[in-house]
Amino acid sequence: MRVAIAGAGAVGRSIAGELLENGHEVLLIDKAPTAISVERVPMAEWLLADACEITSLDEAALQRCNVVIAATGDDKVNLVVSLLAKTEYGVPRVVARVNNPKNEWLFNEAWGVDVAVSTPRLMSALVEEAVSVGDLVRLLRFSHGDANLVELTLPEESALDGTRVGDVQWPEDTSLVTIIRGTRVLAPSQEDSLEAGDELLFVAAQDREGQLEDLLSARRGGSTAG
């Protein structure tokens, strides 16, 4: 897979290193000569250019990329790069870094963003996830379909404790994707039973999050399964 990363700062270089270790082809783009540190990521391709310029992206052969990551420290730049990558070059997957959470609402399909990653929001979510039981925690937002990756730790008193996954009447537009039980990561089947203390990861439409939280947090004695 070929990946272009706009922004060769600490974030961009770190992403590049991970992708290279996993066998992907990586191009780092930055307009600042001081950011071009080939010795730090020697296996990557490097391009000294402004990623907001069409001529630069032509030189980068962005149309050959499977993924573009806009990872600069400037939200305006990340939005422009995302929009150009999607509309001018038809890049299948565009991931954009959100530096200021107040700008997160802009990082959507209209700007060519498939996945927006807000570091401040993610750090806050991880803190919440560590201390919250029974509360839904939003980990990641997907632009397409207005869906989010959310997590909830099933509380001890949950009515779903001991219930088979296949017997739960899940809200529409939600999908249970992973159960984390202690040190195990489970791909849930219809026959698996939920247990108190399970960390449940869902992809869910934003307008279904309230229903999902109510379902998972409902105390014993309510009607939650069928």
UniProtKB/TrEMBL annotation:
One GO CC annotation: plasma membrane
The keyword Transmembrane helix is assigned to this record: no
RCK C-terminal domain: residues covered: 137-218
Gene3D superfamilies linked: NAD(P)-binding Rossmann-like Domain, Regulator of K+ conductance, C-terminal domain
Annotated coiled-coil segments of the chain: none
Domain called RCK N-terminal: residue spans: 1-117
InterPro entries reported for this sequence: K_uptake_TrkA (IPR006036), NAD(P)-bd_dom_sf (IPR036291), RCK_C (IPR006037), RCK_C_sf (IPR036721), RCK_N (IPR003148), Trk_Ktr_HKT_K-transport (IPR050721)
Origin: domain of life: Bacteria
Keywords per UniProt: Ion transport, NAD, Potassium, Potassium transport, Transport
One GO MF term: potassium ion transmembrane transporter activity
Name of the protein this chain belongs to: Trk system potassium uptake protein TrkA
